[in-house]
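Whether sequence alone determines local backbone shape is best considered at the level of individual chains. Part of our work consisted of pairing the sequence of a single chain with a tokenised description of its backbone. This step matters because it turns folding into a mapping between discrete strings. For completeness, the protein is quoted in full, as a sequence line and a line of structure tokens:

_____
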Amino acid sequence: MPATPAWPPKSAPRLFVAQALHESGQVVIDGPQAHYLSRVMRVAAGDVVILCDNVTGEWAARVGDAGKREVVLEVSAILRPREAVPDLWLCPALLKKDRFDLVLEKATELGAARIQPVITRRCVADKLNRERAVAHTIEAAEQCARTALPDLAEPVKLAALLATWPAERALFFADENGGEPAAAAFAAYTGPAAILIGPEGGFDEGERAAIRALPAARPISLGPRILRGETAAIAALAVWMAARGDW
């Protein structure tokens, strides 16, 4: 007897949409998403598309009509509620465009709740194309089947970040001058937290002193080697998720 096909199919395309979803609702997809569904995925009437709204969760929808400029979807059933993610912020210093794209992508895949870009004195970039950055996080969430998008904040200067830092949230910062091993520090802590990662040239002495003066700051070490900014961000997130996260 043949096996019953999985429903919805694992190959069904996944999209985040702006409108809140509900059973028997209708969603009209246009623009680049419509091009993706009709021209790339070649969906046809009756095919299944997985939708997420970053509010209620993940839904199955069937294609009602697939045109060249828009695709009409009929929402049929909720598959999963919006997931709960660990209360962890990633505060990475801005990097060159392609390297920061990687940070955004991997932070989304690894489950960061919030991404707060930081501008430090040694940053080679001081601006972020927000529309492009949001698109990267959405694409990463669609690919890894995440149902909750990370909150992507506007870049802030390090001094402003420290001046407004919430006292109840620990700020673990990767200090090339040394600190407690990251795995041990993360495993021993149980409250809300954030991880601060410096730029390619690291924090300067004034910045390091300002960070250490913050009562919530906790210096950590990511090992004996000097890591690139994007590598440090990904490694620290992975260690956190293994020690305290949803792995």
The chain has two domains: 14-81, 88-243. The longest helix spans residues 130-144. Residues 172 and 218 are 5 Å apart (CA to CA).
